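Exercise 7. Given the encoded structure of a 617-residue chain, write a plausible sequence.
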C-alpha cells in the first residue's frame, strides 16, 4: 500500500554514472508534503551555499506530489533547482504525462547531480536506469529529440523531458520541454540541464499509485469534477484557454506594449482567442487526467508560416511576443511561440529580452542595430525571429548580449539601459503591467523566484471585482494589499506541494483539495488554516534559501519603468513612487513576521517549525 507516495527518490550522479534509491525521510513528508515543499527543502540541504547554478554540484530535481498520477484532476509535476537567471530558488511547473510517469516508475522524485563528460540522456524503465550517449541528439530541436528517442527505444508511449539548443548553450532562460507542448518554462532550468550535458530524460513505468481510502477518494474526485464543471471561469478556460485574458488585460490597461511603456494595444483582439480561433485552432487537448482541456491544438493553413503545428498561444506568450513587441499578426506570434518551444526558450523571458533590445536599438544603445540583416525595431517579426535564433545559439552580437537575460544585458549597456530593463531579481516580469494594480505589484516584488505571476497575484481582487473579506478592493490603494498577497502566496505554495495546475485552483475549493489529499494519503492538514501554515512554512523556507544565496531585500521592488506614468488607458498617469514601494514592502514584512531587513524573525521560524534537520543522501 503506498497511499499516494512511493517514499523513494531516484538519485543519479552523472559524474560517476551511479544511481541509487533514497528513502524519503518521515520528517520531510510530514513537514513539506511533496512537490515544491520537498524541492525547496532539499535544495537548501543538497546544493552548496552560493554555488554556481551551472556547476556540476547544482541539483536538478523532478518532483511530484501525492496526488500526481492519481485520478485527482489537474495535477502536474515540477522542476526545482537554483536558477541561472536569478540566482534564487527556482520551481517551475509542467503538465503533460511526464509527472505521472515518474510515479509509475515508482518514485516521488528524481534528483540529478554531477555532470556527464559528454552528452547523454537518461532512460529510466520501471526502475532500471541507463545513461545513454546523446551525441546525435545534440543540436536538434525539442520536437526532434522526442521523435528520435521514441524511435530509438521503439516505443511511442515513452514520456520525455528534454532541452533544445538554448539549453545546450546554457541560455539563462532556457526551458525544459515535456512531451512536445508542455514546458517547465521559467527561470532557466533548461540551462542547468544543459550544464550537466543532459539532453533528455525518458521514462516508462507500470507501477500503480494506490490511495488510502478508495471509496472516499472517488467521492472526492467526483466532487472535484462537479466543482470544475459548474465553475464559469473554468468553462471559459475550456472554451478559450487563457488567450481570452488579452482583451481583459487590455481593457484594464495592464497589457504590456512597447517593453511595458504602455498598457493598451490596438491589436489586442487579433492576438487573443478571437484571432487565434479564426486562424489557428482545430481541437482541444489536455494534460493527463485534466477535464479542463485548456489546450488548443492548431495548424497554420495559409500564409508565410503555413504548416506550423502549434498549441494555443496562451496569454503570457501572446502578450510578451505580441503586444509587448507591437506585433499584432497572430500567425507571426504563433510562429515566434513555436520557435521558442522548439529552440527551448522561455517565451515570456524571450519576449521581455526582445522588447528590451528593441527599445535599446531605438535609443541607439545597441552596439549592433541589426540582426540577420533586419533592423531591430518594434513591430518587426523578422528581427524578433532573428533575435530568438541568435539568443538560442548564443551568436555574437545581440545573441550573446541577451542570452543572459535583461538584467545582465542592461548591466553591459550601462545606466541608461537600466532605466527600461524590466525584470525583478533578474526574472523578466509577466504580462501584467503592475501600474494599474498595486496588489499585483506587491506580489511581483515579493515573489520567491523573481517577478512571477504564479505566486499569489490578486488578479481577481485588483481587477475582477472579487471582494476581499466582504469589501471591494481599490486597485490603486498602496496599503491593505499585503494581507491579500500573503494569503494567496501561502495558499498556492501549499497547493504546489500537491503540484496542482494553477487553473484548477480557479474551480476547486480548498475543502475539496483537502478531501483529495486526506483520502489519498490518510494524512490531514487541519483545514484551511493548516494549508496556510504549510504554505507559510514553505514560503519562509524559500526566503531563507534566497537570503543564503545572497539576494538583497532591496531587490523586493519594481524596476524604474514602473516609476514612469502610464501614458494611456484607464490608469493613465499612474506610477509608483519610491515611497509607495517602501510602504507596501514594509507592511508586507511586518505581516510576514520578518525584520525590517526582510529576514524571517526567530519567532516566525519557531512558529513554523523550521528546524535544523538536514537531508543527506
Ligand atoms: S488546465 Fe490546462 S495546463 Fe492545467 S492541467 Fe489542465 S490542460 Fe493542463
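Solution.
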Amino acid at each position: 500500500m503506498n497511499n499516494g507516495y512511493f517514499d523513494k527518490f531516484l538519485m543519479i550522479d552523472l559524474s560517476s554514472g551511479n544511481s541509487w534509491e533514497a528513502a524519503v525521510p518521515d520528517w520531510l513528508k510530514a513537514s513539506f508534503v511533496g512537490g515544491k515543499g520537498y524541492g525547496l527543502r532539499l535544495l537548501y540541504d543538497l546544493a552548496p551555499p552560493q554555488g554556481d547554478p551551472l556547476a556540476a554540484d547544482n541539483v536538478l530535481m523532478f518532483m511530484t506530489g501525492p496526488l500526481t498520477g492519481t485520478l485527482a484532476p489537474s495535477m502536474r509535476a515540477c522542476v526545482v533547482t537554483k536558477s541561472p537567471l536569478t540566482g534564487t530558488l527556482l520551481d517551475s511547473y509542467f503538465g503533460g504525462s511526464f509527472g505521472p510517469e515518474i510515479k509509475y516508475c515508482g518514485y516521488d522524485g528524481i534528483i540529478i547531480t554531477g555532470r556527464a563528460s559528454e552528452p547523454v540522456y537518461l532512460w529510466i524503465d520501471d526502475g532500471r536506469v541507463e545513461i545513454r550517449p546523446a551525441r546525435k541528439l545534440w543540436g536538434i530541436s525539442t520536437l526532434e529529440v522526442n521523435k528520435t528517442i521514441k524511435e530509438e527505444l521503439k516505443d511511442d508511449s515513452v514520456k520525455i523531458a528534454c532541452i533544445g539548443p538554448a539549453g545546450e548553450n546554457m541560455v539563462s532562460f532556457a526551458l525544459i520541454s515535456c512531451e512536445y507542448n508542455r514546458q517547465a518554462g521559467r527561470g532557466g532550468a533548461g540551462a542547468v540541464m544543459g550544464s550537466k550535458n543532459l539532453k533528455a530524460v525518458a521514462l516508462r513505468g507500470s507501477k500503480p499509485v494506490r490511495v488510502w481510502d478508495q471509496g472516499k477518494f472517488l467521492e472526492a474526485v467526483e466532487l472535484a469534477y462537479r466543482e470544475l464543471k459548474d465553475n464559469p471561469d473554468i468553462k471559459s478556460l475550456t472554451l478559450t484557454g487563457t488567450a481570452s485574458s488579452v482583451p481583459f488585460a487590455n481593457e484594464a490597461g495592464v497589457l504590456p506594449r512597447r517593453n511595458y511603456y504602455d498598457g493598451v494595444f490596438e491589436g489586442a483582439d487579433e492576438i487573443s482567442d478571437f484571432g487565434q480561433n479564426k486562424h489557428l485552432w482545430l481541437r482541444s487537448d489536455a494534460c493527463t487526467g485534466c477535464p479542463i482541456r485548456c489546450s488548443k491544438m492548431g495548424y497554420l493553413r495559409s500564409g508565410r508560416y503555413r504548416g506550423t503545428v502549434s498549441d494555443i498561444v496562451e496569454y503570457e506568450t501572446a502578450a510578451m511576443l505580441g503586444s509587448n513587441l507591437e506585433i499584432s499578426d497572430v500567425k507571426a506570434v504563433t510562429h515566434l511561440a513555436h520557435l521558442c518551444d522548439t529552440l527551448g526558450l522561455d517565451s515570456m523571458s524571450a519576449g521581455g529580452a526582445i522588447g528590451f533590445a528593441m527599445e535599446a536599438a531605438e535609443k541607439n544603445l545597441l552596439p549592433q542595430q541589426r540582426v540577420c540583416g533586419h533592423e531591430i525595431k518594434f513591430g518587426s517579426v523578422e528581427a524578433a525571429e532573428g533575435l530568438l535564433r541568435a539568443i538560442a545559439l548564443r551568436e555574437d552580437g545581440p545573441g550573446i548580449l541577451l542570452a543572459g537575460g535583461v538584467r545582465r544585458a542592461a548591466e553591459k549597456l550601462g545606466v541608461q539601459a537600466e532605466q527600461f530593463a524590466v525584470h525583478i531579481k533578474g526574472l523578466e516580469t509577466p504580462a501584467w503591467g503592475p501600474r494599474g494594480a498595486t496588489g499585483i505589484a506587491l506580489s511581483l516584488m515579493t515573489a520567491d523566484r523573481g517577478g512571477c505571476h504564479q505566486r499569489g497575484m490578486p488578479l481577481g481582487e485588483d481587477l475582477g471585482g472579487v471582494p476581499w473579506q466582504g469589501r471591494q478592493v481599490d486597485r490603486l490603494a498602496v496599503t491593505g494589499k499585503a494581507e491579500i498577497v500573503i494569503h494567496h502566496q501561502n495558499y498556492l505554495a501549499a497547493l504546489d506541494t500537491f503540484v496542482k495546475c494553477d487553473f484548477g485552483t480557479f474551480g476547486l475549493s480548498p475543502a475539496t483539495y483537502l478531501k483529495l489529499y486526506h483520502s489519498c494519503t490518510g494524512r490531514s492538514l487541519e483545514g484551511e488554516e493548516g494549508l496556510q501554515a504549510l504554505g507559510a512554512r514553505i514560503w519562509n523556507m524559500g526566503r531563507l534559501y534566497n537570503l543564503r544565496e545572497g539576494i538583497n531585500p532591496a531587490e523586493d521592488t519594481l524596476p524604474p519603468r514602473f516609476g514612469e506614468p502610464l501614458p494611456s488607458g484607464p490608469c493613465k498617469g499612474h506610477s509608483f513612487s519610491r515611497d509607495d514601494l517602501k510602504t507596501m514592502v514594509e507592511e508586507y514584512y511586518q505581516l510576514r513576521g520578518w525584520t525590517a531587513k526582510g529576514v524571517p524573525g526567530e519567532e516566525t521560524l519557531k512558529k513554523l517549525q523550521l528546524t535544523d534537520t538536514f537531508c543527506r543522501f
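Remark. The chain has 26 helices and 19 strands. Students should compare their own answers with the one above.
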